[in-house]
Fold each of these.
Amino acid sequence: MAWRRLIPAGIALLTVAGCAGGPLQSVFSSPDSGNAVEAPPPAPAPPVDPAEVQANELGSVPVLMYHRLVDDPVSVYDRTPEGFRAELERLAREGYVPVTTAEFAAGEMDIPAGKHPVVLTFDDGDPSTITIGPDNAPAEGTAVQILQQVAAANPGFRPVASMYVNADPFGGGAAGEKALRWLHENGFEVGNHTFGHTNLRLASAAEGEQDIARGDRFIREAVPGYEPTTLALPFGARPRDAESALRGSGYDYTGVLLVGANPAPSPYSEKFEPAAIPRIRSQGYDDDEAEYGSSVWLDELAANPESPYTSDGNPDVISYPAGSGSPADRFVTTAAAY
């Protein structure tokens, strides 16, 4: 791919004037008038060669699933605050950058060259995920506060995640609605988990659609002006009509999350299914079914550097190694093998 840097004619003329009439500064400011004209911004850096960073934007993306943080876990869905922090620090060390499910599903992942996207998702609206303190900040020891701390210590590690809520999230009432608004105002995604945590496989088609729509309305009412765009299936249970999880009367989504046990395909890949995005349960090496959990999967991705989604740093081009996969039809014109 050929790249050219264009120099506006006006800048070229100013450069000549500077050479002929003294320092360039005198062209942009006039001591007599007191008026100053800002110098043009520096030209953007040229795009990175995808091969240099082993870009693979058809690679796999870990979508990690969390529920609550507790000091003494009682199920595989629990993590200790220390375990959660350690996992975030590992992700930062290994070059991952958090993106929301909405960004992932829409294929809008503008991250630096050589970095990998990771999606952090939290189900059920547990107060250990976020509780807003009297200082209008996430309380000490909550997942959001830990995420902010890790991001502050690791520049480039975005403090964003996707929160999937039912009725009365984060303690319910005014406190819960305050938490929802704080999340939206600070760049987090608020997603739908149905209003009543309904098993959509067991519910009738009408009941399932109604509960998804009710959950959608609840979020919109709690966060005026906000529009949910993704859904996490309670229990990972898909409705018999899978498309009804994506759209129905009162909602229209770009992505639906399963429970799953493996990384998700790139949103640009022909393997990507918006109605069935798999997730990986966050857990340590010693937990039940650890072979399906995040610790083991992150090891697997690290051991196979050609496997994870690796950014080329250019949001306008989908770069991938020749022979490593095929882009979906709608992305063929913007995809480039190398």
Amino acid sequence: MTEVPPPFDPELAAALEQLGPDAGPGLSLEDIPARRAAGRELAAALDPTRSGAFDAAERRVPGPPGAPDLSLLVCRPAGPPVPGPLPVLYHVHGGGLVLGTNRAGLEEPLTWAAELGAVVVSVEYRLAPEHPHPAPVEDVYAGLLWTAGHAAELGADPARIVAVGASAGGGLCAALALLARDRGGPRPAGQLLMSPMLDDRGDSPSARQLAGLGTWDRSAGATAWRALLGERAGGPDVSPYAAPARARDLSGLPPAFLDVGSAETFRDETVAYASRLWAAGGVAELHVWPGGYHGFDALAPDAAVSRSARAARLDWLRRLR
């Protein structure tokens, strides 16, 4: 039986149509160099100071044992010092584990930080396929260790570090929470997972429904997971620190906010992860945005559903404090 996909929200569909046929949902390994170059151009245009609202600086910090140093982009509110240590938004960028820099997707975390009076620390992790698992998640964990250990230097509170990420970044934040729990490392105060990439198997109803539609589909996901895991992708021996949906135990994790579009490939794995967090006695807030495709709020920020999604994330961060 043909699986009929849910419709896109009309405002979001109009934004997607404006991109034209070249903005398809697929990704091949051959596409990666050009997509990386385009992403670097976009990232270079970002002003992380927000016209002087933040003091922004790149910091070189120790990577995992035996690995190169990491680059962290640290953005701290400018102006007179605020009494007391500030919360931290520890940002992990998206890009299917094969694309992106620590400036990618930083616009929304900077908006949250301006509203909340928070420090943003954005980590640049090594990318697949040149650096397969566990390089990306180990880099993200090393960046968390540095951030928690140097919180006083940043004027920040190590007990109020929230891991935030979209797509692959959301999946890495979920993996980070698992790794920190299992290693006894710094426990994030929360995990904000936007359309997270959690499951390497890519065989959910939503993955099948949305094949060939939107901005990212199961074929793109298969490319990304193969880049990270090689022949192990989809097989029986995948680490939960690579694909958090594989974790058997989701107890003892930080409070989570998860959101996803109803018309995107990651819908069902996100809903399932939230359900398993609840089943393990955890705290989770889940939003499924009607008619949303992957990354809809970045592509159509003025759409009504995009405004609702962004408001819900900020509201959760306010309540988490």
